[in-house]
Amino acid sequence: MPGFPLLNERIYAPYKIAALVEVLAEQGIAPEDSLKGSGVDVDQLYGTSTLTSVRQYAAVCKNAIAMSREPATPFEVGSRLHLAAYGMYGYALMSCLSLRDYFRLGTKYHRLATPTLTIVWNEYPDRAVWTFPDAFISSPTRELGDFLIEQQFTQHVTHLQDVAGHSCPPVKACFSYPAPTYADIYPKYLGCPCYFAQEQCELVYDSAILEQKPQLANRHSAALIQEMCDRLIGQAKTSTGASGEVYQVLMRKPGEFPGMDAVAHVLKMTSRTLRRRLEAEGTSFVAIADDVRCSLATEYLKTTKMSTEDIAMLLGFSDAANFRRALKRWTGKGPGQLRH
To answer: Where are the domains of the chain?
Structure first.
């Protein structure tokens, strides 16, 4: 994460922090010490209104690395983070209709889960593969990067077992870094052969599992909860990092759409600084502006009787034809399809 203060980044319940603090407490490390420098107090860990950030979780992970002598710490945390702790995101995954849907939705709604790593899912004829190309925390140390990967891999194994209702281990786990001295721990927690110094970090499953039906699959609940997650994703966009600040500025006066220089001025920074910070978060001003226009267009079409021409004008398009082309590019659909 960038090293500058952001007021709007605390949007996640502290369940990951709480699990890590509990594991460290069992090792004799006081919660106050585990939380040092994170900005989180012990009495906030289980508060229903407490919200935390990825950056705060990373601070507790760094404390764990410095204070714990137990290499199994991240694996223990991952094995305790069951989907029931993840709120709507967890329930959406548990109620999906197949394990293929679980893989797909796990990626789609990942930003609701205090994400420390980027995840990508790909399906091949014989295997389904999670890959983890990078961390959301900018320039993590080698120790922190390994800690996050170890926890993330164990979480994935735990979550798939929660959804399937039975043990569903990977075929293999690959790691891009050399084997650590405690490499024998990995198969114990992941339940599969583990390979180090590989091209990338990936968790590989047999594609035959994708047709399995989750134990709590329910068509009505899946549709309802996924709709709620879609709305939460929208909230997450406007609440995270520098990109969230830009979303908020653009949404204040949705008919005006100020340019990048004007938005940077509102945020009290140069456009160059804003561009750099957005790039660090994997986005750009143009992408955010398009996303805001797309969201507003969809909302107008679904909830109002405004004409296509009026909506085009509200969104700053010179004519309805340009608006239709942009809408097709954003959504793959035309105004009539979205309206109905």
So the answer is: 15-211, 240-339
